[in-house]
Each structure stands twice: as structure tokens, then as C-alpha cells.
């Protein structure tokens, strides 16, 4: 037994870090036979059939403030968001109803949004021909409802994944890529690429179960045993992947350090870029929780999974976006 293996074997059970044995990337078991395209496509199709009620995540809750407007694009629609004096979320089209100035370049004062061109002031209700859009702040992310973009039956509120109760840490990251939301979702519905494509973040990855072709709602999930790695140490967990609505993937840690913690991936179509190809925003929220009891211990332990995930995330999410972009490029080229 090597020294490292002996250390790993003697590592106290209640400490979630493990020493990772040296692995040879090319020596891993290939996963292409398990990662059947039809299985991934089936999971994607079922995700796309679930209702979203035309709701789109557009930012982290903390991005929208009471001292300046926030602007972005969803489904080709320019939107502006800000907070009123009670902290309430206000969202609407970014074009000023007067001559069309970009309201995201305006100023927020005493809860009202002031247009930079001629000073028109919007309080957030229907005024001067400007119409607010339905918006929702779930405490971590903010959503806007665009019925003309989604063309589904509208829902009163977005489909928000279950999140851990109590003390929690939310970290939200945003990336943009040349692809469609389905490309981002399809990437996440392929857990088999993890240890091959992201060996710096994942190791000892095993897909414990994948949904059958005719999966009903309860069975429609991937169960994955994986070790998040930070250099030579790792945190082994069992994670579940589900798609509660067409543009969201939830990774929930169901066993191990941080059980109950979730990483939500939201893929929001922005509309076409200058080159005519679609842009998609990937907005990822890490909401962490530790399952360990003992106040003193959990205070130290709770944030453990979050920094691990965050360290893992930067490169991980770029690489996943490259996967999604590649998937789109193949389809795009094929259609020309
Ligand atoms: S364009 Fe906004 S006030 Fe004139
Ligand atoms: Fe990935």
C-alpha cells in the first residue's frame, strides 16, 4: 500500500476530504458506450416538454440594485431592471417610451428610473406608454416573464428548484456563449463527460443510474457518484441531476459533504448576436448547505463545498460552454 493510500484509508470518516490517488487520464474507463446519444436526447426532450410559464432567469438578485439600473437581453428583447425604495423588483423594456434611449444607461433616484436623454422618470408602473413586464425575485435569482418569446401558457410564478433551508450561501456566475439553451441543457444531461473532460475538477465519477427512455417525473434523474477535486484532495459526494423546466438543470448533492446543496444551471436565450447566431446566457447559482450537525463544527464546515465548487467552477463552466457551443456549431453547419 502506498503512503497516500494508507493516509487515505486512515482519514477520519467525519472529515470529508480524501486524498486522491494519482490517476492516469488515458487509463480511465471510457464512457462513450454508456453515454448513448438517444438517452441524452430523450432526457433533453422530456425537459423541453415541461412548462416554464415563459419565465426566464436574467440575473442574480444582487445584480439588480436601487442605485443604478441593470440591463440585459432576453429572447431578443432588451430589458431594464431596478429596485424601488421598498427594494421591490421593477422590470420592463429598456427602450424609453419617448425616443427610445436605452434606459439601462439611465439613473435610479428615490426608486424611480430617469432616462438619460430627456429626464423622463418611470416609477415602474404603466406610464407614458411604457409597460412593465412580470418579474419575480426568488431571493437568489431574478426572473422575467416574456409571453411572446416563450409562447407557452403563462404561469403566475417561475418553476423554482427546491433549495436548502436555513443558512445558505449563494454564489452566482454568468457566462455567455454562441449556442441555444438546449445545448447547455444537453451538456448537463451528459454526466459521463465529467471525469474525461474536466479531470481537474472531477474524479472517480460513476453514473449510478440514468433515466430510462420512458422515465416518468420521479424517475427522470441521473444519479452520479463523483469526487470534486481541489488539487490532490477531493470531496466525494453523490449528486442527482434533474431538469425541472426546459432551461434549468439542478445538481443536488444527495449524499456526502454538503448534502442538500444545489447548483442550478439556467440557460437563458438572449437573442441573435451581431453575426446572426444565437447567444445564450448561462447563469449558475451555487446554494450550499452542510448536513453536519453541531453548531460550531457546521459553521466551519458549511462553506466547504462552496469554495470547492467555486474553484472547480471557473474552468469547468468555460469548458462546458465550449461543449455547448460545439454542439450548436455542428448543428448550425449541418443546416447550411
Ligand atoms: S428618450 Fe427618454 S426622455 Fe427622451
Ligand atoms: Fe461538464
Write up what this structure looks like.
The chain is α+β, with helices and mostly antiparallel strands. It contains seven helices and 17 strands. It has helices spanning 3-10, 37-49, 147-150, 181-188, 194-197, 295-301, 305-334, and strands at 18-19, 55-60, 70-74, 77-83, 89-93, 107-109, 112-114, 121-122, 135-137, 141-145, 169-178, 202-209, 222-230, 233-245, 248-256, 262-272, 278-288. The strands form four sheets. Strands 1, 11, 12, 13, 14, 15, 16 and 17 form an eight-stranded antiparallel sheet that branches. It has a three-stranded antiparallel sheet with strand order 2-10-9, with no helix packed on it. Strands 3-4-5 form a three-stranded antiparallel sheet, with no helix packed on it. A hairpin with a 6-residue loop joins strand 7 (112-114) and strand 8 (121-122). Helix 4 (181-188) crosses helix 7 (305-334). Residues 293-303 have low confidence and may be disordered. Bound molecules: FE2/S2 (inorganic) cluster (FES) and fe (ii) ion.
Rounded mean pLDDT is 88
Query: In terms of structural class, how would the helical and strand content be classed?
Result: alpha+beta
The total count of strands amounts to: 17
Quick one: overall form?
A: elongated
- Which percent band covers the strand fraction? 25-35%
The number of helical segments is: 7
Oligomer: single chain
- Tell me the series of helices and strands, N- to C-terminal: HEHEEEEEEEEEHEHHEEEEEEHH
Instruction: Tell me the Rg in angstroms.
Output: 22 Å
N-to-C CA distance: 57 Å
The major sheet is characterized as: 8 strands, antiparallel
The set of bound ligands, ions and cofactors reads: FE2/S2 (inorganic) cluster, fe (ii) ion
Give the low-pLDDT segments: 293-303
Measured as a percent range, the helix fraction is 10-25%
Amino acid at each position: 500500500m502506498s503512503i497516500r493510500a494508507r493516509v487515505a484509508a486512515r482519514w477520519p470518516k467525519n472529515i470529508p476530504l480524501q486524498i486522491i490517488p494519482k490517476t492516469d487520464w488515458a487509463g480511465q474507463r471510457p464512457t462513450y458506450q454508456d453515454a448513448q446519444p438517444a438517452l441524452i436526447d430523450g432526457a433533453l426532450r422530456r425537459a423541453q416538454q415541461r412548462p416554464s410559464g415563459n419565465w426566464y432567469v436574467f440575473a442574480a438578485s444582487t445584480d439588480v440594485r436601487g442605485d443604478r439600473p441593470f440591463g440585459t437581453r432576453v429572447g431578443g428583447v432588451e430589458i431594464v431592471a431596478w429596485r424601488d425604495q421598498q427594494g421591490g423588483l421593477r422590470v420592463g423594456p429598456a427602450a424609453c417610451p419617448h425616443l427610445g434611449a436605452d434606459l439601462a444607461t439611465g439613473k435610479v433616484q428615490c426608486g424611480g428610473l430617469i432616462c438619460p436623454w430627456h429626464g423622463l422618470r418611470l416609477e415602474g408602473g404603466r406610464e407614458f406608454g411604457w409597460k412593465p413586464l412580470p418579474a419575480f425575485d426568488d431571493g437568489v435569482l431574478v426572473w422575467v416573464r416574456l409571453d411572446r418569446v416563450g409562447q407557452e401558457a403563462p404561469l403566475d410564478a417561475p418553476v423554482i428548484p427546491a433549495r436548502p433551508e436555513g443558512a445558505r450561501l449563494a454564489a452566482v456566475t454568468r457566462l455567455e456563449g454562441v449556442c441555444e439553451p438546449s445545448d447547455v441543457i444537453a451538456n448537463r444531461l451528459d454526466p459521463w463527460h465529467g471525469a474525461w473532460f474536466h479531470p481537474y475538477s472531477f474524479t472517480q465519477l460513476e453514473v449510478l443510474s440514468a433515466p430510462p427512455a420512458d422515465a416518468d417525473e420521479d424517475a427522470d434523474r441521473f444519479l452520479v457518484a463523483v469526487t470534486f477535486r481541489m488539487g490532490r484532495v477531493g470531496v466525494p459526494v453523490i449528486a442527482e441531476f434533474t431538469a425541472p423546466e426546459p432551461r434549468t438543470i439542478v445538481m443536488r448533492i444527495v449524499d456526502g459533504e454538503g448534502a442538500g446543496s444545489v447548483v442550478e444551471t439556467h440557460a437563458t436565450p438572449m437573442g441573435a448576436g451581431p453575426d446572426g447566431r444565437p447567444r445564450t446566457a448561462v447563469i449558475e447559482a451555487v446554494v450550499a448547505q452542510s448536513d453536519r450537525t453541531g453548531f460550531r463544527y457546521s459553521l466551519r464546515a458549511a462553506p466547504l463545498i462552496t469554495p470547492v465548487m467555486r474553484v472547480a467552477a471557473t474552468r469547468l463552466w468555460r469548458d462546458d460552454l465550449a461543449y455547448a457551443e460545439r454542439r450548436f456549431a455542428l448543428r448550425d453547419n449541418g443546416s447550411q
